[in-house]
Amino acid sequence: MKKSYCPIDTFINVVKGKRKATIILHLFQGEKRYSELVKLLPQISQRMLTKQLKELELDGLIHRNVYPEVPPRVEYSLTELGNKIHPALKGMYKGGILFEKSIDESHS
Question: Which residues pair with residue 74 across a beta bridge?
Answer without folding.
Answer: 66
